[in-house]
Amino acid sequence: MLAGRTAVITGAAQGIGLAIARTFAAHGARVVIGDLDEARAKDAAASLDSDALGVRCDVTSAEDTAQLVETATTAYGGLDVMVNNAGITRDATLRTMTEDDFDQVVDVHLKGCWNGTRAAVAVMREAGRGSIINLSSVSGKVGFVGQTNYSAAKAGIVGLSKAAAKEVAHRGIRVNVIQPGLIRTAMTEAMPERIWEQKLSEIPMQRAGEPDEVADVALFYASDLSSYMTGTVAEVTGGRFM
């Protein structure tokens, strides 16, 4: 489904990002993994069954993000898919959250997404085509206690993506959003059992999702199967908070 195409994925040395990289590679894409941890990015790229590169990238830096995209275009001759996935958490209540906790999360998620979208559009507009996929969260839809920073950033990604989609649709570029719910990753499995069980109780499908299930939706958005879709938000939540 992605044969001959080049995809850049941020924050893809582990978790959902790595699952997306593996799925794209399995469908023929050349993949460039950007991650703050260069060694893990290179290891992740080496683990893929395709032509792939691992590059250090701090998504809060416009220069780093532009360089990541340039690496892809130099190595593979273009850019077809951009996945802005990089993220962090700094959970705390309003009373205990520091200004730095707030700024870091907004910078990585929201500014990082803006940097990635902007850098990708600069290349894709010349080609007259491209798919940008931005990772939000169900937290951006409903808000969670202790996540005023994360919920704000993830909601902002939806607004950013819809505005960008309107700006670039006439250039053949599509911008869509994925909002995962409770997905089984190392981060979520580290939750206290009572929190995990409480979250599971909110899911009509009565289970957590798997990273590959998010990756399959990313594949749909990256491929021509979604050729007439832009500005949309896909909830990958098992029906949580419908």
UniProtKB/TrEMBL annotation:
Keywords carried by this UniProt record: Oxidoreductase
Coiled coil feature spans: none
Pfam family, one: adh_short_C2
Superkingdom per UniProt: Bacteria
Keyword DNA repair: no
Limits of the Ketoreductase domain: 5-186
GO MF annotations in UniProt: 3-oxoacyl-[acyl-carrier-protein] reductase (NADPH) activity
Family named by the database record: Belongs to the short-chain dehydrogenases/reductases (SDR) family.
Protein name: 3-oxoacyl-ACP reductase FabG
